[in-house]
Specification:
It is a single chain. The protein is built from 14 helices and two strands. By secondary structure, the protein is mostly helical.
Length: 306
């Protein structure tokens, strides 16, 4: 028993700075934002407590509510594309790359994962050049395979812009679910795979019947990470379409809406109090989604697994 005390003391020594840093960088700003969302200023510029009035304006005023629901709807579509395209592709790639007979699997993993470490500025700017109808290479590439008629100025049309940027984001981050699922597949005991092969279950049938049920908790974790990451998205939209998230706010998401409101942009003055209200609403949306996952989906996945 005496030997455990120094170990616990060393753990406390190492954890204390981490807790202090986390509190200073995360907890205090969070509660500061929540408190500021309940404040505003009077005609003299004095900061006053207004309760939920900022939220009433955000959800009740026509101008504010239209912008908020437009951003939320765009954000939801942005997330849905990642769930329906990025994660299934990542799972399929992980299943293929985990095949023992596949040659150069390490090279393929590296090549697919490299875009995730690239800067948002580089990715947004390069893809904006690629998709440009004037000097981009996309029209020429489609023309080379006889599909020039499919090309359109995707980033300049309201009906295509958000989907195009979501697919660019999928291209950049598909390596993350691929690597997480790949690690989960490698953690499956060899005895389970050998037993399945003895029963004649091989190939994709083995993946669907044996491997996928065993990695469902990892799939759930990837899903919630995708949810949190997408509802915190900002960089790619800002780089490619600017703070106004054109054309005509067709690519506006909660992150760009928050940026314009809090800091101001062009002819729009910054309003830190309404910006804090938007940030609080974003926090509430993400918190509800995470709670649904933790207390609903993840619990069922664990029961299903064991």
């Amino acid at each position: 028993m005496a030997s455990r005390k120094p170990v616990r003391w060393h753990i406390a020594v190492f954890l204390a700075p981490a807790v202090l840093v986390y509190t200073a960088l995360m907890i205090i700003p969070l509660f500061g934002t929540l408190a500021q969302s309940l404040m505003n200023h009077d005609a003299a510029g004095t900061r006053i407590f207004v309760g939920l009035r900022n939220f009433a304006t955000l959800f009740g005023d026509a101008v504010w509510s239209d912008a908020f629901w437009n951003a939320l709807g765009n954000n939801t579509w942005f997330f849905v594309i990642h769930m329906l395209v990025q994660n299934p592709i990542g799972i399929a790639l992980a299943a293929i790359l985990s095949t023992p007979r596949l040659r150069m699997a390490g090279f393929y993993r590296t090549a697919i994962f490299i875009p995730t470490i690239l800067s948002f500025v580089i990715v947004g700017f390069v893809w904006k050049l690629i998709l440009s109808p004037i000097w981009g290479i996309a029209p020429g590439m489609l023309d080379a395979v006889g599909l020039k008629f499919l090309f359109a100025p995707w980033l300049g049309k309201e009906e295509y812009a958000l989907t195009a940027l979501a697919l660019v984001s999928v291209w950049q981050f598909v390596g993350i679910p691929m690597m997480l699922i790949y690690a989960a597949l490698l953690s499956i005991p060899d005895g389970v795979i050998e037993a399945a092969e003895m029963d004649g279950i091989t190939g994709w049938s083995q993946f669907w019947k044996i491997k996928l049920p065993l990695i469902l908790p990892s799939v759930g974790i990837i899903s919630i990470l995708t949810f949190v990451g997408n509802f915190n998205a900002f960089d790619l939209i800002y780089v490619a379409q600017g703070a106004l998230a054109g054309p005509d706010f067709a690519t506006d998401i909660l992150g760009t809406f928050l940026y314009r409101t809090f800091f101001g942009f062009q002819l729009q003055l910054g309003d830190p109090y309404m910006g804090s209200a938007i940030a609080t609403a974003m926090f509430g949306i993400i918190l509800v989604g995470v709670c649904i996952y933790l207390f609903g989906i993840q619990t069922r996945l664990r029961r299903y697994q064991f």
